């Protein structure tokens, strides 16, 4: 079936003053797509096949072009914002007419010159548009396993859940809110570790390294905070997770692991008010 927004290999079935007429060689008679004469790549004869991109013009007529856009339906990619209007933004997608990113399909604040991660969809008027709401366009069939390092783009942030990311701009990924160590925004590109591969194939991700490396990193960070605080840190095992997060930006569990390591090495001691360095 010939679909708008995709590249198809079609067969020349006729010619006219307007151009050449194309159809799927396996579905002859079911479609007659015009490739306008001003878009012809050269001489074509009946029976020839050619790769074309299918779209609708402003009058609603389905046409073919030999020009290849930067994205087609089912693909994700970064496109540059070339114009901002009251009803949406226009993106450069490698075609003569820029691609509309409707206001309702935008996430966060975008500006002229930005590059937005988008997918394509067909609107109610059969026109191709862009969307930054890409959750339903991502795949859960990634090749990654636990502890693999991956690269991803933040495409949505939920304060109650965390940051949703597109791994390799293709696969579902989530950074839980307790894993976020600073404020991130839509469009940020980050390097992460696969913390868990869920049964549905979606990836749970972390900025932090494996646990045994985390202990080393967290312990070193605690010692640095002790040094800058005159050897005293006024949090301990009795402190709330919120207090520890505010002070060190790590979880209470990670704090207890780090403190346990430092106690074992004799680097600190605990008090009723907190911990003290042993130097």
Spell out the key features of this protein.
OB fold (Dihydrolipoamide Acetyltransferase, E2P); 5-stranded antiparallel beta sheet; 14% helix; 279 residues; 4 domains; 3 helices; mainly beta
In short:
The chain has 279 residues and is mainly beta.
Task: Write a structural description.
Helix 1 packs across helix 3 (252-264). The model has no long low-confidence stretch (mean pLDDT 88). Helix content is 14%, strand content 37%. A hairpin with a 3-residue loop joins strand 11 and strand 12 (162-167). The strands form 4 sheets. It has a 5-stranded antiparallel sheet, with no helix packed on it. It has a 5-stranded antiparallel sheet with strand order 8-7-6-9-10, with no helix packed on it. With 279 residues, the protein is mainly beta. It has helices at 211-228, 241-248, 252-264, and strands at 7-16, 19-23, 33-36, 49-56, 62-65, 76-84, 88-92, 99-102, 115-122, 128-131, 149-158, 162-167, 171-176, 189-197, 203-206, 232-233, 268-270, 275-277.
């Amino acid at each position: 079936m010939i679909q708008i927004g995709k590249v198809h290999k079609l067969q020349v079935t006729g010619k006219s003053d307007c151009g050449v007429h194309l159809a799927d060689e396996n579905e002859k008679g079911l479609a007659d797509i015009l490739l306008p004469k001003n878009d012809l790549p050269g001489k074509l004869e009946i029976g020839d096949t050619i790769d074309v991109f299918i779209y609708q013009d402003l009058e609603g007529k389905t046409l073919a072009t030999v020009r290849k856009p930067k994205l087609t339906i089912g693909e994700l990619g970064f496109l540059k914002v070339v114009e901002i209007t009251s009803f949406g933004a226009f993106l450069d997608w490698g075609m003569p007419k820029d691609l509309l990113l409707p206001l309702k399909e935008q996430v966060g604040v975008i500006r002229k010159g930005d590059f937005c991660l988008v997918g394509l969809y067909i609107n109610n008027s059969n026109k191709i548009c862009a969307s930054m709401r890409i959750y339903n366009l991502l795949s859960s069939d990634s090749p990654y396993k636990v502890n693999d390092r991956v690269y991803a783009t933040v495409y949505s942030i939920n304060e109650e859940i965390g940051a949703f990311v597109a791994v390799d701009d293709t696969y579902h990924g989530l950074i839980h809110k307790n894993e976020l160590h600073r404020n991130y925004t839509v469009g940020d590109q980050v390097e992460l570790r696969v913390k868990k591969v869920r049964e549905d194939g979606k990836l749970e991700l972390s900025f932090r390294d494996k646990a045994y490396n985390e202990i080393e990193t967290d312990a070193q960070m605690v010692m640095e905070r002790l040094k800058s605080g005159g050897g005293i840190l006024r949090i301990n095992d009795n402190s709330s997770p919120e207090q520890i997060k505010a002070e060190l930006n790590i979880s209470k569990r990670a704090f207890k692991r780090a403190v346990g390591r430092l106690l074992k090495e004799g680097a600190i001691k605990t008090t009723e008010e907190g911990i003290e360095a042993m130097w």
